[in-house]
Design brief:
alpha+beta; 2 domains; two-stranded antiparallel ribbon
């Protein structure tokens, strides 16, 4: 099993989440050799480490506070929201335990999940970009504890770019140091490690 395409960012992550690597510059060949000896890929090792870390994190404040009084500023300054009215729908404060994840696997693109929610009249329970911003403000430990190394998407917030292409916003961990906003094409093939977030207020009843 060979680990190709290992980047400097991957190495920094491994330095921080694995006691097997000291700080400093580590040759890619050394990292690959260590991983190959354990018969594990870089992605699998990172996911394992994120899960191990998340179990050790204690979260005292589970509540998310969302500003729905006005539309948020969308990423990179070149996007506009498709449905402004729908964007402002939702609770202004909720427990993160009332948020669930829906995984698609690797055979469906994000547009199919969106249209499925639309057909079933469930778009209103999907999280939107304002929710992602509020979760981002909770910081790295909060994100690791609940989402690990996953990208999490807000299906309700379809964004139009200046090039008339559609995108979906998501959150992800960057180098274990920050929670960042990203966007991907509406028709991007869904990765097994990605999920869409939605409200389930029956969960704690």
């Amino acid at each position: 099993m060979e680990n190709k395409g290992l980047t400097g960012s991957d190495i920094r992550l491994l330095e921080k989440i694995s006691g097997n690597f000291p700080g400093g510059v580590i040759p890619i060949e050394t990292v690959n050799y260590w991983l190959n000896c354990q018969n594990i890929t870089i992605t699998e090792r990172l996911n394992q480490s994120f899960k191990e870390m998340s179990k050790k994190i204690v979260i005292n404040d589970k509540y998310i506070n969302v500003d729905r009084s006005a539309l948020p500023t969308y990423p990179f300054g070149s996007y506009r929201i498709q449905d402004k009215a729908l964007e402002l729908v939702g609770p202004t404060k909720y427990n993160i335990d009332n948020v669930k994840k829906e995984f698609l696997g690797d055979k469906t693109d994000s547009s199919m999940l969106y249209f499925k929610a639309q057909r079933e009249d469930k778009l209103a329970i999907q999280l939107c970009f304002a929710d992602l911003l509020a979760i981002k403000e909770k910081g790295v430990d909060f994100y690791l504890h609940y989402f690990g190394n996953e990208k999490v998407f807000a299906l309700r917030s379809i964004l139009w770019s200046i090039f008339s292409t559609t995108h979906l916003p998501f959150l992800h961990i960057k180098d274990m140091e920050s929670v960042e906003v990203g966007v991907c094409s509406f028709n991007t093939k869904w990765d097994p490690g990605w999920s869409a977030l939605y409200f389930d207020f029956e969960k704690n009843k």
